[in-house]
Automatic annotation (TrEMBL), chains A, B:
<dbReference type="InterPro" id="IPR000843">
    <property type="entry name" value="HTH_LacI"/>
</dbReference>
<dbReference type="Pfam" id="PF13377">
    <property type="entry name" value="Peripla_BP_3"/>
</dbReference>
<dbReference type="InterPro" id="IPR028082">
    <property type="entry name" value="Peripla_BP_I"/>
</dbReference>
<feature type="domain" description="HTH lacI-type">
    <location>
        <begin position="6"/>
        <end position="60"/>
    </location>
</feature>
<keyword id="KW-0805">Transcription regulation</keyword>
<keyword id="KW-0238">DNA-binding</keyword>
<keyword id="KW-0804">Transcription</keyword>
<protein>
    <submittedName>
        <fullName>LacI family transcriptional regulator</fullName>
    </submittedName>
</protein>
<dbReference type="Pfam" id="PF00356">
    <property type="entry name" value="LacI"/>
</dbReference>
<dbReference type="InterPro" id="IPR010982">
    <property type="entry name" value="Lambda_DNA-bd_dom_sf"/>
</dbReference>
<dbReference type="InterPro" id="IPR046335">
    <property type="entry name" value="LacI/GalR-like_sensor"/>
</dbReference>
Length: 351, 351
DNA sequence: TTGAAAGCGCTAACAA
DNA sequence: TTGTTAGCGCTTTCAA
């Protein structure tokens, strides 16, 4: 025997107080006598009252909704590919659970960044949902069209994986340090000719990672010329092309730092095709640490991004912002991990 | 300080008509003169008007929200495990995109099925969101506590992977046929002692798959005694235990049908530990076809579930239902695929 | 074919 | 510390 819908009115009647008092109680506002608070809470429990999100949004200023914006093409491609990604899963793990803790919901939304109508798409989502905050995933946080729009609309937002100053909360790992750590890992293993495959230029972190590699090479007193750098775009194909040229020629590299797992996997294939042993002849280390790193042969050593932690932090900051863009956009830097697996090893004595 | 928003009022003023007329236009209702319709649409386009979901829910009966209910523990475990799942991703792929097509949103929600408060958790989500429909994922569709609750609350729901008659739309693949196909695949390869590892009893499909195996064995004129059946619960550990006993003893099996990938992977490990070649000494076939099947060594032959298609169909049916539980709960049966990889092969001559 | 009025369930601003 | 009064932006009667 279930009621049709229990509203704040029913609770007020049951507790013998006004609507406003009930509202205060469910919003944990001060200025409610303990005795009254108790009565209202009892009524809420008895009737199984849960406030309607839609009504709260209508009356007040908050919607209790956080919007997570992801790149449509890339996400769908990931879902349809055989490889499996866990970017989305980790986002949900971190973001959804944090939202749930605070009575918020996270709505996952795909937007087509490349189309001329990014602004329209995002504006529409905002008009429709009136989210209290927006989580921007790479490379959206680096897209001024988007960040400017959100600033103008005064919707608080968090940029995941975007370290720039700018508006909105910046939540990222230290990409340069991570690339340096990856490079250093190889240096420690005795490598001196360490190639680097960049990610797409669209991502600011692509440049930052390259800088990290340069820094580590310099610190180790190694040459870091352009002959060791290849431009990739995160795709398998670009990784393969990059690896091809790095391992051929008069001065082949003995190790490669790839800016993501797909490109590292491509390097692995190239090595196999050429009869190069991994890590015997070629060490490979990558960024992201998606599931494929664990199942490739050999498993890939990789830099793991704290995606869940970043999403969680983003949600937290946005919820704290209570719908108002923060004046002081703080930057959170979360720790990365270097997961050593079997694709990296000591350089050959005859290297 | 409220955020500037274009409302139906502005559109009405711009087009010189009443609110109702605008409402009719955006809801594609009849009885609007073409000329007026055009004027309103022009105003909508000019002002960039997008109706507010919250307001639509408040005024009318629909919320434009579809709730996807997933098992909390299992989902979080999948996210946290190293393996990577793609159940959630495929759900989003199918469900979200279909919802988006119709101006709906899909909200992904985790519920703790095992706790005594399932009813409270689900009732709360419904009270809060007033979804127009709910997608139940396994094993929720087989849980009478949940299906009865939703029936009582008159919220339309779709059961994914649940074939029973009952209330709500049933959307599933033919589990028995799939298990039979998997078994048959092995029979064709010359196997006669084919073991079967079941899934958790909590899932109705566990029983159905077992029946499919029995059917195929019988059809092939093979013995299908209980000595060939082991009870698993979808975990790696249970799969390992099951495989252990199937490959040992006086009459070891030459092939195993495992009810999910994790258990198949466990069987693979058991084979390796015992020095059994796969598929030379032991063929393994599994259900689900998550990413791990593609990266294990050898890659696993598996039955792929049409998860995205099922989620898409579920969303479609619920949207069509327009918030009213359908009288005739139709059942959709979607096709599965057998993906042949390297873990199954001909039985040894001396087998 | 159109429009006017009455809410939906809640919160913000103000009174008491 | 509590209650009262307006709306929020839409859809749903119902009337014209």
């Amino acid at each position: 025997m279930r009621r049709q819908t229990v509203t704040i009115k029913h609770v007020a009647a049951e507790a013998g107080v006004s609507l406003q008092t009930v509202s205060r109680v469910i919003n944990k506002e001060p200025h409610v006598r303990p005795a009254v608070l108790e009565r209202v809470e009892a009524a809420v429990a008895k009737l199984g009252y849960v406030p309607s999100l839609a009504a709260r949004r209508m009356g007040g200023s908050r919607s209790y909704l956080i919007l997570a914006l992801n790149d449509r093409d890339r996400t769908i491609e990931g879902w349809q590919s055989d490889g499996g990604t866990d970017w989305v899963d980790q986002m949900l793990l971190g973001g959804m659970l944090k939202c749930a803790e605070h009575g918020y919901r996270m709505i996952f939304e795909l937007v087509d960044t490349h189309a001329a109508h990014v602004e329209r798409e995002i504006s529409a989502a905002i008009s429709s949902l009136h989210p209290d905050g927006i989580i921007l995933t790479p490379p959206h946080g680096d897209n001024p069209v988007i960040t400017d729009l959100l600033t103008r609309l005064r919707v608080p937002f968090a940029r995941i994986g975007s370290a720039g100053e700018g508006a909105g909360f910046s939540i990222a790992m230290d990409e340069a340090a991570a690339a340096a750590a990856a490079t250093d890992h190889l240096v420690q293993l005795g490598h001196s000719r360490i190639g680097f495959v960049t990610g797409s230029d669209e991502y600011a972190l692509s440049v930052t990672r390259l800088e990290g590699w340069r820094r580590a090479m310099a610190a180790a007193g190694l040459a870091a010329g352009d002959d060791l750098v290849r431009h990739g775009d995160f795709t398998f194909r670009s990784g393969a092309a990059a690896a091809e040229t790095l391992v051929s020629g008069p001065q082949p590299v003995t190790a490669i730092v790839a800016s993501n797992d797909q490109m590292a996997l491509a390097a692995l294939h190239v090595a196999q095709d050429r009869g190069l042993a991994v890590p015997g002849d070629l060490s490979i280390i990558s960024f992201d640490d998606t599931p494929i790193t664990r199942f490739s042969v050999p498993p890939l050593t990789a830099i793991a991004q704290p995606i869940a932690a970043m999403a969680s932090r983003a949600a937290e900051l946005l919820i704290e912002a209570r719908g108002q863009p923060a004046e002081t956009a703080e930057a959170s830097v979360l720790p990365f991990r270097l997961v050593a697996r079997a694709s990296t090893g000591p350089v050959r004595a005859d290297g």
